[in-house]
Amino acid sequence: MSVDPIKIKNMLLTSAQTILNHIPELTKLDCDLGDGDHGTTMEKIAKTIHSQVNLWDEKTDVKESLESLNGVLEDVSGGSAAPLVGSYFCGMAEAADNTEDTDSFIKTILLGGYDEFYDMSGAEVGGKTMMDAIYPAIQIIRSCDTISAQVLESAAAAAKAGSDATADMLAKFGRGRYIGVRALGHIDPGSVTFALFFEGLAKGYQI
């Protein structure tokens, strides 16, 4: 068995494009809670992912290419979002195992991304952060026997619900923690980014 690089390519390209389609929204959300740079940062990150992954073909070594992508992402500057998103891709690259079948590979890299993100960020559910979208999605992925379109759609829905729930949370990390109760009613932009990421993965899987 081997990994289908085109399947992974479609998933990552669709995720990047889904984020790019929502840059104005991400910017506005961050203006409510932070310094307004999240949209700009995510535009740079998503464009970097798109340009790198778009070069993949059916002969691409996916593990090596994820490692290369991670190296490029490490050079993207822009607030706290860049290293946080970068940590997820770092975890995916480290966990990648080309000997797996494609669906097992997808599960492995997504869980690896979560582990690295958790270790790097220290964020917990309920803190009004990216974790509020990532954790519920990963719980669904972790519990599945095998990756499928339905599993990824359920994970994306869970990420969206987790992100939406941040509107009712006080911020415990980032600039948002300095505005106290004024953060209520505002959705965390980082959580929206990862909700879009998982939405794109689900759509790209079905291409």
UniProtKB/TrEMBL annotation:
Matches recorded under SMART domains: Dak2
Any Pfam family: Dak2
Keyword terms of this UniProt record: Kinase, Transferase
Occurrences of domain DhaL (ranges): 6-203
GO CC, any one term: cytosol
Protein name: Dihydroxyacetone kinase, C-terminal domain
GO molecular function: glycerone kinase activity
GO biological process: glycerol catabolic process
InterPro entries listed in its UniProt record: DhaL_dom, DhaL_dom_sf, Dihydroxyacetone_Kinase
